[in-house]
Design goal:
Elements: H1 2-14, E1 17-23, E2 28-35, E3 39-47, E4 54-60, E5 66-70, E6 75-82, E7 86-95, E8 105-113, H2 120-127, H3 131-199
Antiparallel strand pairs: 1-8, 2-7, 3-6, 3-8, 4-5, 4-7
Helix pairs in contact: 2-3
Length: about 200
């Protein structure tokens, strides 16, 4: 039962994601998502047409590398391959001439990644597979993706655990060092005040 739930969860994750939003004149709207390395991402977009207004898009990673871009969008597609595990973003920018009063434009975006980017209809025709065999092939690819996801999550969990342990050790040593400094300062103050009071003959 748990395995079935996990498979359903990953089918939802790897299914196509469709979003629709409005972008205000001369503004920018970005969508971000964490993507695994060596993964193909495909996107279909459609922008409502308004005379004199244009929308550009750009896809980039956290380091600013541009993976795809387009200008004066109407309807089209984009494709890029993720090289490393990173947060990728696609930004849509509205451009309106100064002499024109802009209005909101509607953007419809459908993105696919992983298993959903494969054309199983083409595989079926090329290999002359039955519908059930094609579905089994799709589930096999999905299972491989799940295994890679779990391996990546385990690796990240180990890295986070190591970082957490190192941080705890550093905090412990810093706390001990701080306590030693405070004790040393308190001892110095007591000895200094004792000598001072003795010099003033306030104590024996």
């Amino acid at each position: 039962m748990v395995v079935v739930k996990v498979i359903i969860f990953y089918i939802i994750i790897y299914s196509a994601t469709a979003v629709m939003f409005n972008i205000k004149p001369n503004s920018e709207k970005c969508l971000k998502e964490d993507i695994q390395p060596n993964q193909l991402i495909k996107g279909d977009y459609e922008v409502s047409s308004i005379p004199g207004q244009f929308i550009d898009y750009v896809v980039r990673d956290t380091k600013g590398h541009i993976l795809s871009r387009g200008e004066k969008l109407t309807k089209g597609k984009f494709t890029f391959m993720s090289e490393v595990y990173d947060t990728y973003e696609i930004c849509f920018t509205s451009k309106v001439p100064p002499h024109q009063r802009g209005v909101d434009q509607e953007v419809h975006l459908v993105t696919k990644k992983g298993v959903e980017t494969k054309s199983y209809e083409g595989i079926q025709e090329a290999a002359k597979l039955k519908p059930m065999e094609v579905e089994l092939k799709r589930l096999e690819d999905l299972s491989d993706s799940i295994v890679r996801d779990f391996a990546l999550m385990r690796k990240r969990e180990e890295e986070m655990r190591d970082t957490n342990e190192k941080t705890n050790s550093r905090v412990l040593f810093f706390s001990i060092f701080s306590m030693c400094c405070l004790l040393g300062l308190a001892t110095w103050q007591v000895l200094y005040l004792r000598r001072y009071f003795k010099a003033k003959k306030l104590i024996e």
